[in-house]
Amino acid sequence: MKAVIFDLDGTLVHSLPDIHAAVNQMLTNERQAQLGMATVQSFVGNGLPKLVERVMARQAMDMAQFDRIAADVLGIYQTATADLSQPYLGMEEALKVLQAAGYKMGVCSNKPHGPAIHLLMQMGLDGYFDVVIGGDSTKARKPDPFPLQETVRALGADQVMYVGDSEIDADTAVAASVTFALFTEGYRKRAVVDIPHQYAFANFAQLPDIVSGYFQS
Ligand SMILES: O=C(O)COP(=O)(O)O
Ligand SMILES: [Mg+2]
């Protein structure tokens, strides 16, 4: 069975504006200065605990408060997960084409599972995915291969492509020996040539041909 597995933040959805807003709401609560969108973007990718750690380090906040601050950010984000987020252009159309072509689809994200499900539901995307693995769903987070392997296993897939936007996704695919398609318009930090990938695309209209080309090869 053939499956296409997607990353979420910066791949299916431009979710940064809501993440940014949640971080800044927490910073307001803590009487700290606000952070810009680009700074917060550079902190996204390794999951919520890492994001909070990076924000607190940047603001020289007391790390003894980490658990309370992380819970605060999660609580705020859970109440406004999809207020400002935008689906990438053509993404849902590509999912429709892939679903109609018979591919099974899953999500493997470092975003916590609760907000990941909430975001997919709010965007009307939950019906495309049989399995959603979040950053807190398994014993490990990407770039550890385990969550991706777990997504493959839960889908019951024997042939897989992973689609993601970051070097973390690329490293995960390498570690799991899974073919990787890089969406170049998300939150990557390095140049496209410096990120290991078998396929790259800037427009979701290209994805169905990439997927069918790979599975026919
Ligand atoms: O939550 C993050 O840091 C990144 O989430 P992603 O794995 O869906 O890109
Ligand atoms: Mg991502």
UniProtKB/TrEMBL annotation:
<dbReference type="InterPro" id="IPR036412">
    <property type="entry name" value="HAD-like_sf"/>
</dbReference>
<protein>
    <recommendedName>
        <fullName>phosphoglycolate phosphatase</fullName>
        <ecNumber>3.1.3.18</ecNumber>
    </recommendedName>
</protein>
<dbReference type="InterPro" id="IPR006439">
    <property type="entry name" value="HAD-SF_hydro_IA"/>
</dbReference>
<dbReference type="GO" id="GO:0005829">
    <property type="term" value="C:cytosol"/>
</dbReference>
<keyword id="KW-0460">Magnesium</keyword>
<dbReference type="InterPro" id="IPR041492">
    <property type="entry name" value="HAD_2"/>
</dbReference>
<dbReference type="GO" id="GO:0006281">
    <property type="term" value="P:DNA repair"/>
</dbReference>
<dbReference type="GO" id="GO:0005975">
    <property type="term" value="P:carbohydrate metabolic process"/>
</dbReference>
<keyword id="KW-0119">Carbohydrate metabolism</keyword>
<dbReference type="InterPro" id="IPR023198">
    <property type="entry name" value="PGP-like_dom2"/>
</dbReference>
<keyword id="KW-0378">Hydrolase</keyword>
<comment type="pathway">
    <text>Organic acid metabolism; glycolate biosynthesis; glycolate from 2-phosphoglycolate: step 1/1.</text>
</comment>
<dbReference type="Pfam" id="PF13419">
    <property type="entry name" value="HAD_2"/>
</dbReference>
<dbReference type="GO" id="GO:0008967">
    <property type="term" value="F:phosphoglycolate phosphatase activity"/>
</dbReference>
<dbReference type="InterPro" id="IPR050155">
    <property type="entry name" value="HAD-like_hydrolase_sf"/>
</dbReference>
<dbReference type="InterPro" id="IPR023214">
    <property type="entry name" value="HAD_sf"/>
</dbReference>
<comment type="similarity">
    <text>Belongs to the HAD-like hydrolase superfamily. CbbY/CbbZ/Gph/YieH family.</text>
</comment>
<dbReference type="InterPro" id="IPR037512">
    <property type="entry name" value="PGPase_prok"/>
</dbReference>
<dbReference type="GO" id="GO:0046872">
    <property type="term" value="F:metal ion binding"/>
</dbReference>
<keyword id="KW-0479">Metal-binding</keyword>
